[in-house]
Each structure stands twice: as C-alpha cells, then as structure tokens.
Design goal:
By secondary structure, the chain is α+β, with helices and mostly antiparallel strands. The protein contains three helices and five strands, in the order βαααββββ. It is elongated, with a radius of gyration of 16 Å.
Length: about 140
C-alpha cells in the first residue's frame, strides 16, 4: 500500500471504492462469532420474523467495519485519529455493499484530512454515512 501524503491529496479526491460481495448468512454468522455479538435478530430467521422483519440483517458494526476496511486500505490504521458513523438503513441479505470516501477537508495544523464516508447497496440506498480524520505524512 502506498500511503497518501498530505501535500499531494486535495479536497474532493476520492478513495478507491471497496465493493463487497452480496451479504450472506455465513458472513453474519462469522461476524457474530468474531465480534461476540450474537443478537439473534442477525442470525436467527425465526427470531427476526417474530420481531417483524422478513429475515435477518447485518449488524450495524459490520457495516462500520467495512468502512474501516476502506480507510485502512487507503492509509495505515495507526494514522486514523477519529472515526464516526450514522446508521441510516438496514443492510439486508443479498445487498452488495459499496463503500466510498471523499476528502472533504484538510487541516494544516496537524496534517490531517477529513474523509466523508458512505456505504450504499446495489440500489443506491445509503446504509451508513460518516466521517474520519486521518493524519498523513
């Protein structure tokens, strides 16, 4: 990975898009095990239906992890200074999520850039939006 440099990035620059495969039940089960979040609404179809959902759906933190992956494929994790998101919609099974980022601001005082983040499904529906501050050499 070639680390971006503060002097060469510009407001408006786009991060390389992270395109994910359609969400599968196995992904939800693996994330539940890795995260320790075994909320049955994400892994048990009968429970999800009793709660009024048509099926299980992704953990919000799985969606945030995908955005984190977008960031750390662009710049080393050690350079991440702040990372916040807003959950805007449910990521359903078979959604093919695309994670994107755009440099929205440069701060000379600490050589940080603010990256606006977004995840959308194949229908163009935004599922998560957020911001991250990344220090660049």
């Amino acid at each position: 990975m070639s680390t971006p440099r503060f002097d060469t990035v510009q407001v408006g620059d786009l991060l390389p898009v992270l395109q994910l495969e359609p969400l599968r039940r196995s992904t939800l089960a693996l994330f539940a095990g890795a995260s320790g979040d075994h909320n049955p609404i994400h892994i048990d179809i009968d429970f999800a239906r009793q709660a009024g959902m048509s099926d299980v759906f992704a953990h919000g933190m799985l969606g945030m992890a995908w955005l984190g992956r977008l960031l750390t494929q662009w710049a080393p994790q050690s350079q991440l200074r702040q990372f916040e998101v807003r959950f805007l919609g449910i990521t359903h099974l078979a959604n093919a999520v695309s994670c994107s980022g755009r440099i929205a601001e440069k701060r000379d005082s600490d050589r940080c850039v603010r990256v606006q983040l977004q995840s959308t499904n194949q229908h163009g529906q935004t599922k998560i939006s957020g911001d991250a501050w990344v220090a660049l050499p």
